[in-house]
Amino acid sequence: RMLVSRMSRRVLASHHIALSDAYNGKDTSDDGEGHVGIIYTGLSVEKSVRKVAKILREAQGSQTAWPEVVLEGHLGTKFSYIKEHLEYILFELIKNVSHGVHAW
Q1: Is the dihedral of CA 62, 66, 68, 74 positive or negative?
Q2: Euclidean distance between CA atoms 25 and 34, whole angstroms
Q3: pTM of the shown model
Q4: Splitting the chain (104 residues) into consecutive groups of 10 residues, what average pLDDT does each group show?
Q5: From CA 104, how far away is CA 99, in angstroms rounded?
Q6: Could you tell me which residues come within 8 angstroms of residue 88 by beta carbon, excluding any fewer than 6 positions away?
Q7: Bridge partners of residue 79, in order along the sequence
Q8: Which residues of 47-81 are buried (b: 16+ CB within 10 A; e: fewer)?
Q9: Cβ distance 38 to 15 under 8 Å?
Q10: Which of 14, 54, 96, 101 is most buried when burial is the number of CB atoms within 10 A of its CB?
């Protein structure tokens, strides 16, 4: 319960700061995905998966053979969500799959 409470406060604080920055004209993010505070209203799943796969591939360097990430299905899917949270989830999933933790 303490962890969930801490995360909730952090999300609320981050959202408030982002909304305040946007209100005061300090919003500098221009990534093509609309957002309100920290909530992206047109979050592209494909773009997030590709970004995370690239980060992991570059972090591994030439140390390990990195598996190719293949995207299939509804690649144009967009929904409202907190971008950093989705990318954290994707990061952990792809990292675990690449290390053989899960075989899909």
Answers
A1: negative
A2: 16
A3: 0.78
A4: 87 92 79 83 93 86 72 92 94 80 47
A5: 12
A6: none
A7: 43
A8: bbbeebbeebbeeeeeeeebeebeeeeeeeebeeb
A9: yes
A10: 14
Structure tokens of 43?
């979050």
Residue 104's pLDDT is what? 46
How many residues comprise the chain? 104
- Secondary structure string (H, E, C) spanning the chain: CHHHHHHHHHHHHHHHHHHHHHHCCCCCCCCCCCEECCEEEEEEHHHHHHHHHHHHHHHHCCCCCCCCCCCCCCCCCEEEEEHHHHHHHHHHHHHHHHCCCCCC
Side-chain half-sphere of 75: how many Cα atoms within 13 Å?
A: 5
The two tokens of residue 36 are 């309100």
